[in-house]
Each structure stands twice: as structure tokens, then as C-alpha cells.
What does this fold into?
Amino acid sequence: MGVLALQGDFREHLRLFSSLGVEALPVRMPAELARVRALVIPGGESTAISLLLESSGLLDPLQARLRDGMPTFGTCAGMIMLASEVLGGRPDQHHLAAIDISVRRNAFGRQRDSFETDLRVAGLGAPLHAVFIRAPLVERTGPRVQVLASVAVPGGTQKPVVCRQGPVLVTSFHPELAGDTRLHELFLGLLPGNERSDTQTLDNERTEDVRPL
Amino acid sequence: MTDSDGHGGGGQSERVTGTGMVKRGLATQLRGGVIMDVVTADQAKIAEDAGAVAVMALERVPADIRRDGGVARMSDPALIEAIMGAVSIPVMAKARIGHFSEAKVLEALGVDYIDESEVLTPADDEHHIDKWSFRVPFVCGANNLGEALRRISEGAAMIRSKGEAGTGDVKEAVHHLRNILGDIRKISNCDPTELYSWAKELRAPVELVREIAERGELPVPLFCAGGVATPADAALVMEIGAQSVFVGSGIFKSSDPPRFARAIVEATTHYSDYEMVAKVSRGLGGAMRGEESASVATRLSERGW
It folds into this structure.
């Protein structure tokens, strides 16, 4: 398991995997990316991570790995990085288009509007405690995207905050902050060879395992 | 501070804002990044273009505050709002030590973090701001562990070294980081009965001292500020144990602010990869001239207690 360690809360992800007994490595350079089977893109500032991906020489190899179907988990800024479209971002911001969603940055407002809440996530049973920090929201999902959790937004509509497309899982919030490991375990279940464990419920809902875009 | 979302469906319950986790959570997202002082919306854009994770909106950088003298206060809300409108990254702003009304104004403006800062002229010689009473998170400076823990006990959600702001001399920041981290290492290894005398010596709540002993680190992120002027300075303070870097005068007092900004961002990410630090330092041009911290007339780092 690798955790992209250019900027943001990569340490929390590394510790969480370590608590699950999974070996996880920080990834800052292409040689490190080549050593991992799966990757987490953590929370942080997506504009900074985007620039650093390019200057570290990781952008092209990462795009190639995503095309090859590397299991990837993006939280908050990681969700923005993996989306096929970013609203409210910088025009020159890279996004990896590994999951067919349109994401709006800072969709809940500024830091004073950041919040924690309990959230029901499909397949996880008891609600998950979720911390939303200047969080993004999903404005559009493509036909191959499964929505695993949503929140209400002003106007009464529901917008997705946890989505999956094949081996790519994204969340608007920070499961790495609240100490609940279930989403990380769900992600581990997406790795080849682990499919039967935690993702059974999800796969029963509907999935021909589709390749990312 | 709670809001019911009022919509029921979807299984989500009440939303709670302004909690310790939400406040520290933003600091956590800024780790491994650079927070840059900016005095105009254009500078804020240069900072964002260079990969800053946040900007500090203020009227004058610390080097100019030193040069001009007089009383340094919170910046004009119009300037802060112009900067908030110019960038998509978090915007911080400074309030004077103890000046909770300036802080309330900054909270009303919607800034993402308030720096209760010794760079401004203190407004209270006895009390820092009660930071628990705010929804917006605070960062505070510290020279040593006791000061850091007192600020945390008042509700600070991020600690930064004070350093000697506006000098371009990193020595004081190094000193403060080593003070804080050195005492944390000692406490982590001490006998539990010694925690009470540590609390007395540090003038800090024993519960926080015990938490340090258990965790081996502060309960909030520790960033570096004060005197960082080059990519190698950023690498140095990250190696010592800072989790992110504030750069005040060091970028916009250099000969080439966009390049310095970018180079310091790269060096902060790849701080232990010295080929990378060398690469970004090569041909960079002149760093801010600066002055030796020991020779300055006003020691900003001695403000606060």
C-alpha cells in the first residue's frame, strides 16, 4: 500500500494502515510509486498536490497506473484529484479522471462551516463518524459510479460524498481523522485477491467490475 | 455549536461545527505545506500559483512592520476580503495578542484561521484570547513547550515557533523548535511521578503534560515560523521536526518571489531529498537581505507569555 506523501494528512493514513497490520509506504517519487500495488491520495490542498505531482515526476506514471486499474482511494483533496471534472478549481489544476464524477471544491463554504457528523455508508452497517473540512461535494456522477453515501444540501437535495467506480473509492470527508477504519478496510477489499471480504455487499448491489476511464 | 441539517433523509444526523477535531483537522490538512504572508490579492495569487497551502493576509510583512515601527494592528477587512476573493486556498489573518474583538471581526469576515500573533503589538499584557469561545481555529506562537501548552489549554488548534519574524534569520525558529521538541522527548521518557513537577516547571496543565508523555508529540500540529528565507531553511526546520512552514518576509522580500515561493514549496515536500533541495536552490537569486536576530531592536519573540 502506498500513500501519496507530497502534502497533507498522509501520516494519518499511514498510521491507520499500520494499525490494521498493513504495510504502507509514503510515495513522493516515481520509484516509490512503482513499488506499491495500491495508492491513497490523502487530504490536503489539491492545488498544491497538483503542482507537486508534476514537479515530482509522478503525474505521468500515476496516470498510467490508474489506466491500468490500480486500486486508489482519495479522501477530500484526493477525491478532487481523482475526479473527471473539478468545479471551482484552478484552470491549470491537474485532475486524474479516474472516476467519472464532477466535484465542486469548498462546496460547504469556508472553515467556519466545516463540521463533523454521523453518516450512513452503504455496506458498512452502523453510521460512520465523518469529518468534513472545507470539503468538496459531488455534483454529477457518471453511469458507472456507485454512490455509497450522500448528505443533504440546502434546498433539500442529496449530494454524494462517498463514491466508487471499479477499484477507485473517493470520499469528501476524512475517514483518516476520526479513527474509524471501516472505509480503509473496504478499500483493502478492492485489492486483487481481497475482493471477497468487505466488498461483498457492494458487489451484490451491482457491479461488472469496470475499468476506470 | 450544532445545526440540524433539517432534511432528514440519507441517514445523516446533526452537524457539529467548530469542534476541536474540525479545528485541528484543517491544520492537519496543511501539513507538509507552506503558508505564505501576502499583502495584496496579486501576491496571494502568486502564492497559490506556487503551491502555497494557505496565505496569511496582512497589510505589511513583518520586516516592514519592524522598519516602520508604531503600533501594528489587525489588517483592513477590505484587504483581507480582497485576498479571500482572489484565491481558493485557506486564508489566515492576524489579531493582536489578547485582542478578542479583532479576532471576532476576523471570524465575522470568514477567515479560515486566526493567528494570535506577537508580530502585532499586544493588546493585553496578561491574557491571551479565550480561543475555545470561537468557531474559527487559532494558531499561536511559542518559544518553548510551556508556552505551547498554555496556548493549547486556551484553545489553540495549531502551534508555530515564533522565531524572530522579519529578520530572515532562522536561528530563533530553530531554537524554539528544539526547545519544544527536546522537552517533548524528555517527557516521553520520564517517570509518571515526574509529570507533576514538569507541569509546575512548564506552568502548564498536568493533563496536557500527561498527553504529551503518552503521544510523544503535541496534541495539535507544530509548524515553524519566523526567519525562514531559503529552500534549505525550510528543509532544516522540517528535518528538525516542524510539520509545515510559514514564510513571512522571505518570499516577497527576495529578488524573485514566484521562484522563491515555488522553491520553498518543493523543499518543504522533499526536505530529506537533498538533490531535490539543491535543484530548486540552484540559480535562485538573492534571498531577503535580513538582519541577524540578535541585533534587532525589538525582539518580537519576547512578546506573549
The helical segments of chain A are 10-19, 30-34, 46-55, 59-67, 77-82, 182-188, 200-205. Chain A is about 25% helix and 25% strand. Residues 197-201, 203-213 of chain A have pLDDT under 50 and may be disordered. The CA atoms of residues 90 and 186 of chain A lie 32 Å apart.
